[in-house]
Batch of 4 targets.
Target 1
Amino acid sequence: MAFKKKFTPRKKFCRFCADKALPLDYKRADILRDFVNERGKIIARRITGTCAHHQRKLTVEIKRSRQMALMIYTATHACDVKKKSVL
Ligand SMILES: [Zn+2]
């Protein structure tokens, strides 16, 4: 079947436990972006598979990153910024 492969459930795992070298840092917004949805909301642990220890750290780092304007708080805020830069 052509479509069978597409729906194979993937085993969830903590990316930070699997790769110890992966930095969990507010400066690395490119990595943190994988753990927020398109509206900027932090994705729950049960969905991403991140362990409790790293999810706690991740939340703090995402919030720091927002404070440093590396990441968005909300999608509406991002829209407002875009509109202002156009005008
Ligand atoms: Zn972990």
Target 2
Amino acid sequence: MVTRRATGADLDAIMDLERTSFPTDAWSDAMMREELASPHGWYVVVEEAGRLVGYAGLRAVRGARDADIQTITISAAARGRGRGRALLATLLTEAVDRGVHDVFLEVRADNPVAQALYASEGFVEVGRRPRYYQPDDVDAIVMQLDLRGWAARRAETAASSAADPTTSSPTGKGWC
Ligand SMILES: CC(C)(COP(=O)(O)OP(=O)(O)OC[C@H]1O[C@@H](n2cnc3c(N)ncnc32)[C@H](O)[C@@H]1OP(=O)(O)O)[C@@H](O)C(=O)NCCC(=O)NCCS
């Protein structure tokens, strides 16, 4: 498994996965192209055996206190094995490096899997946008993460894992 920065050359593979993962509200090619090219964006892809199996994006204006998780997707066949959590951690680590204090995201109210992932990393619900996702008429839940708290928890878990290697997770996602 390789995780690397996305480039414009990844657009077609990203859009294939985008349309499969979000059948009713996929971004357009133009929106995704703009995101990949934005100086405020930071997108990564995950590849296995040369095939793209995931992507995720952060929007973090340099010097700003807040950042947003724009998207995160793992292909259906690759889900449930820690890749989504690892991708999220990659974005949050970049946000830490950019000096961000708080990270926000929106998630569909009918997406309990993504909500569980975010909550387990420390995101809390701070609001709702009624009927935000169209045409499905589904609310958006707005979530916020205190990034310095997240980084402190992560460092603490890494330190205790180093002190006692038997506590480390074989999947590499054991800090929560
Ligand atoms: C959300 C998504 C990125 C998670 O990726 P993943 O690789 O399957 O997730 P992980 O294996 O890293 O699991 C992370 C957590 O998600 C939750 N989760 C994962 N699969 C789940 C399932 N089938 N049922 C309930 N919760 C689940 C759990 O909280 C899990 O933590 P745990 O393994 O410690 O219990 C993936 O399901 C996906 O791409 N979904 C479609 C696109 C999408 O909804 N993106 C989010 C938009 S806001």
Target 3
Amino acid sequence: MKSGYRVALCMLLIVCFLHITDVQASANRPNVLFLAIDDLRPALGCYGDKTALTPNIDRLASRGMVFNRAYCQQAVCSPSRLSLLSGLRPDTIRVWDLATHFREAVPDAVTLPQHFKNHGYHTLSIGKIFHGGGKPAKDPPSWSAEPQYDIVRNAKMRYALPKNLKGKKSKRSAAEAADVPDNAYIDGVVCDASIAALDELQKRDDPFFLAVGFRKPHLPFCAPRKYWDLYDRSKIPLPVTTEHPRGAPELAVRSWKELEGYTDIPEDGQLSLKKIRELRHGYYACVSYIDAQVGRLLDELDRRKLSKNTVIVLWGDHGYHLGEQGLWTKANNYEWSTRVPLIIAGRNNQMSSVAWKAFSKTAASQLDPNVMFQGQTFCSSPCMTLCIYIPVIILKENNS
Ligand SMILES: [Ca+2]
């Protein structure tokens, strides 16, 4: 796949939203639930993963559009997130690390939530959206209210087992299974806060853009035991290949030193088969834990009769290696680390289906992906605008 198309898939998300909101600005404007899931590769049933138990995200996918060839801009949290949220490439916002704020290079950039805010939406952030710490975690122009749980440093929200609550370093065990409720960890707390926020948001006259950021399945793989118990560890497949690609340059197989430093990970990084199995089990347990939180939000939208007027987007900030190719975590350019889940569920399935068909037939065949697919450049092209507007107009006519 050409690199430009990788950029295009994430940009499509933004462009669809921008133009949908423009067209419907004076009519019936949908709410937006924007779900960011940290370090989630497409380990989901709806992506054909036969191990993953993700009934709720699969339920969302069944009424939306699943993008099978979505790729992040850079397989690192902050560059990926800030790129998607600004609609600009990492090279443009000059963010390739975890410490730089995009407004240093592009102070006047209009982010996705900021655009909604500028067009009459109430925008709210709960959990990890821009980034989980430091300067990049904050962007006041994007939000109508103070973000909640955007930076969390409390070890008690990260670990639950007594042995892991001891110590001062942030890295303790790389995984834990504890007999605790969902909100013993941060993501259950974020979900609780999001459900509470919906109560307030529904009372408002203006539509909402609610961004909810879950931190699992990012390391450490800590989840309530009931999600571990969904899986038989011995039946979770091992990595198909554990060798570096033959002939690959050393730089290409250099990965993030993220797993190292946890108390149960050997200093030399050589993992036993037992530990590999545990980590892969832990990742899937965390995916199911997050799936349950997504299910709670979907149920709450249904209960409040908000589903019919809420566009839902679910995306992962980058992919992940769980021992494949001898690599762990992210920060490399192989498929496992760059491919992401992206699901857009409109108020009805027709919206996303028609929009995607128009995009793929009209735009992708006519444009130079190396030039067109970036932020405002992409949006300002009459051709691209047309191909997005057409399905929106059709939908508007059908709905009127
Ligand atoms: Ca991440």
Target 4
Amino acid sequence: MKLTKCMCGGSLGDLVVEKDGVKMKAQKCGKCGETYIPGSEMLRYDMIKGKSSMVRKVRKSGDSMVVTVPKQIIEKFNVHDGDVIAFEPHGKEIKIKIVHAE
Ligand SMILES: [Zn+2]
């Protein structure tokens, strides 16, 4: 989501911030100097830096796209080989339901 105005009322300009060698598209307020980095860019940073174990890269496998399940999810939701994962679209987000195999 792109903001058009800062909390202070100043207008935002596009800017690229570099953090540990990772370039992120951000916005900076011309009035107070506040920098806004979108959540999607933060996620990308975490993924590149391997900081978030809850982020997965999508890979191509034949005609499908494959995503692995994070270890924390496997443990918390007791996911086993053969279980089914159901995707429920909710607007721009997807809810994932784990259905255990008998
Ligand atoms: Zn501002």
